[in-house]
Structure formats: C-alpha cells, structure tokens
Design goal:
With 591 residues, the chain is mainly beta. 3% of the residues lie in helices and 25% in strands.
Length: 591
Amino acid sequence: MYKSIALLPLLTSSATAQTPGCHPQWRSGTSYTGGSLVSTTIYTTTTNSDGDEVTTSEKKNFECQTANEAHCPQYDPAVPAQQAGAWTDEGVCTGTAPPPVTSAPTTSPTHPIWSGAGCPEEWVEGAEYDNGELALVDGIVYRCSEEQFVNGWCGNGGYKPGDSQHWETAWTLLGGCEGTIAPTGSPTWDLPSGLGCPEPFDEDASYEEGDKVELQGVVLQCKSWPNSAWCGRTGYEPLGPNSDSAWTKLGTCTGTMAPTGSPTFDVLEDQSGCPEAFDDSVEYEGGDRVSVAIDADRSLVYVCAASPNDGYCNQYEPGHWSNLGWTVTGYCEGTIAPTGSPVFDPARDQFGCPEAFDEDAEYEASDKVSTPVTADISLVWQCSSDVHEASYCNQQVPGNEFKQGWKLLGHCTGTVAPTASPAFDALTEVGDGCPDVYDEDATYEPSDTVAVFIPDDLNGARAVVYQCKSDVHMAQYCNAGVNFAPGTDNSAMGWSVIGSCDGTIAPTAAPIAFSGPCQWLNGTNTVDIDAWDTADLATYEKGTRVRKGGDVYKCKGYPFYLWCRNPAYEPGNANGIWADAWTAAGECAAV
C-alpha cells in the first residue's frame, strides 16, 4: 500500500454556495476590524477506498467577527481552531471580488447661523478659556461651559469642540457664523468714580487681605480671610469669572493714587518706646514683644500669644494675614527706656532658693532648682511629679521652649532655710518599733510594711510606716523602682501610709514548724498533705491540698486553679485574694 497526494481544486459544488469572487488573501499582522473580508485556501486530507491519503483544496471567503476583532490580525482562518475564534466562513469563492463600493464623501453638516454677530477666534489646543468664552471650529461657534472649574477642560485636546468623545462636557454648540465679531468697547461699571489708581494687577504677585489693584480702570480690593487665600490663585483674577469670590470692586479710577500721609494711630495705645525689632531667626515664646517698623520713626508693637498658640510666633511674622501667633497691642516711637529690676508677685515668693540648676546633675520627680534673674533674685522650678514627664528634667533646661519637664513655681532670694523636723501628731504610732527600712532592691508583696526614717532633732530617729497595697495589681508598683518608692510623689500608686514608728520592732520568736502528720482520706487512700511551697507552684491543679502551719487549703477548679500557681495568691495571706484560688479545707492537729 502506498500514499499519493492529489490537489483537486473544487471548481463547482452544488452543495456549497459560491461568492462572486475571492477577497484579498488573509495576512498575519494586517489591521483587521469587525466586518473585514478576507480569503484563504483550505486544505482537507481524506483516505480513499485504496487506503491512500488524498488532499483537496478550496478557496473560501471569511468575515472578521466584530465581537472578536482583536484576534483577527493573528488568528489564521485556515486553521480550524483559530478560525472559530475570530472568523465566520462565508463559503467557497472563485476569481477576484470587485473592490468594495465607497460612498461619495459627504459634506460637513450645516448648522443655522447663531444669534451672535460674526465668528469668534479659532479654538486653540492648550489655550486657557474663561467661563462662557467663544471659540470657532470648522465654521461652527461653541461656548465654553459657564460652570465653575469646568472651563479648565475647554483647552484640552480631549475636549475639542465637536471633534472629541467628551466635548459636550465642556462646550455647547451655538451654530454657524459669518464674518468676524466686532471689537467690543470697554466695559462700563456702575461704580463710584474719581478714585486714584493703585498698582496694576500682576498675575505673578502674591496678594493679602486689603491689598488694592487696578485692572481696566477698575479698583479692586482683596477680600478678608479666608477669601483672601484666592486672591493670588489662577482662575480668581480680578474681573474674571470667579473674581467675586476673592475681590471686591471699589470703583473706577484715573491717574494714580495720591500719596498717603503718615499713618495715624488714634485707636492704638502708645507703648512708650519700642521693643526689639522682629527677627525671624529668633525663637519667641508666649508674652514676647517685638516691633515692626511702619516708617522711619514709628513702629507697631506685637505680643506673642500664650501657649499653645505661641508656636505660631516662630512660623508667622507679625501682621501675617492668618493672625496666628501675634497680636498688635499698640504703636511706639524710639526705643524702650531701660526698665528697673523685675517686680515679682509676693504670693509666689518661695522663701529661699534651692540649689542652682546644673545641667550635669541627675534630677528626679519633684526636685527643685533655681535659675538667676538678677544678682539677688532667681526663679524657682520644680521637676514634674509625673514620672514620665520628669524624664525630660535631664534633657531640657528650666524654661525650655517646649515646656517639658520643669514647672515654674515662683521666685526666691537667698538660699532655702533649713526646715524643721517633721511632726507626727497626725499619724498613729504603729506597733512596738519599726519594720525593715524600705530597700529599692528588695521585692515586696501585698501587705508588706516598711519604714522610711526621717531625722527628728527633738525625738530622735522616727519614721513613717508604709504598707504595700493589698490589691495585687496596685501592689506591682511597690517594686517599680525609686520613682514609686514610699514618700515620693508617686508612692500612692503602690503604698499606703498607716502610721509612724519609733526604734525597731522587737525580734519575734522563731516560728515553730509544723511537724505532725497531716493527711486526708482520698476514697480509700490516705494522702500526705505537703506544705505550700513556691518551688511546687507549677504542680498545683484542681483539688491539690496544701497546708500552711496547721491550716489546710484546697485548690479550686478551672480556671481558678491557674491562680494557685501564682505566688501572689499564697493561701492564708492577709490580702485576702488567696480565696480566689484556694478554699479553706480544715486543719491539721499539731503533735
């Protein structure tokens, strides 16, 4: 058996409708769109009765499917899988199809002549168009949108009048036109006249509240804040479509404004001399006073606002349109006469000065220092009692611009007089002697007591007795360091004053350890009860029994047994919270 290949073009077929002729051959990469017509040769291979393969061919027309036109340049209609994805079989063809008939070009649509007189200037891409401005495209008149901000699109090529997808968003078609628009006369204004003209408007200048400009013979004034923010913005030019949002028309003018006389200050108080001139390199604080020259002889006086607004004094100059930071208090001439020594409120006299501030020293909450003002007088500062804020006392000097760490208490002269020993009349004496002295390196538990000794020239060594709070959460502050030690500003977080004491507590007899048997019957088994021990905490669970002396305690069920493993819940403790984890379960008789 052998194979033979025969090319049998099908010239006629009663079963296949033929088109008048074949369209141009499909070529890969050609730009095809929906409805494009092409032809290609289709080869079909079959096996005859002798077992030989026979290949036949036929030329067919195909039409590009609109829904899949993106594939037509790449999908070959001769390949069945690709043909189905982009082409529609139009049947067998012969010869050459005549070129498609094209209709004669149509003339541009005509529009009625618009109601205006003449044609405006041609539309220019990239130009700036005002609200309502006219433009011409192909003899048709269009008007730029009068809606605020939309006019910004009128010069955009994507909004070309009559010739872009979105042109109707920015433009309105008015109609055809003939001739040109006659020049318009100068606008007339129903405004007061006879004013002198200020400087002409300059689109590159910056304007503030009250500034006056001239444009087309009209005097305009920049409005007050917040509208003044628009006076220098594009789109808000005087006499423009948005002018009224930023400018007030005052009247018409001719010539120039007559020179004004020197300013008068009838409504401002004379400050009796000028403080130092404002200097934008200086750091200012609340209450600082500066002067700003008006002419060769006189200045305005401004005072910096109090905290927290004093921060603006270093951001904005006096007289800034925002009115932030500085307030005008009057006017001045010359310089301020030397002032006498400062006068201090006697109510804030601290009666003696603490040690002078030393930037190399380490300060803690509530520490007091002094800083000199004159040879005899100093200011008294106290480090904040807040433990977090107090950390700034070792980073910032008293009176720092950030007002961190230090608080001004008042003034002082001389040195702090020695204070008398404290009296303890208001405290109840606790016990016979004092407990152990507080030790910042020790670990304290709820209800522990400590003594803080204070010199007492009259009575010898006396101390205040503090007790660590019973609340397990508050008791954590008893071990929070020196900033929470008894007697400090933050001691109340963990410690309570319970009285005073003299001397030391007499030694107590050593406790007698329980040595007798302590057991309980678990069903039929006798189980020994061990003493509660921190070393065994991890083993305690629901039902565990322990003893403290002769008392027996039973660990509660879930979730309370988790606290049985916490030493703060030691059974029988005076703080009482042990009952959240343990249940009293009887006694063991001592032997």
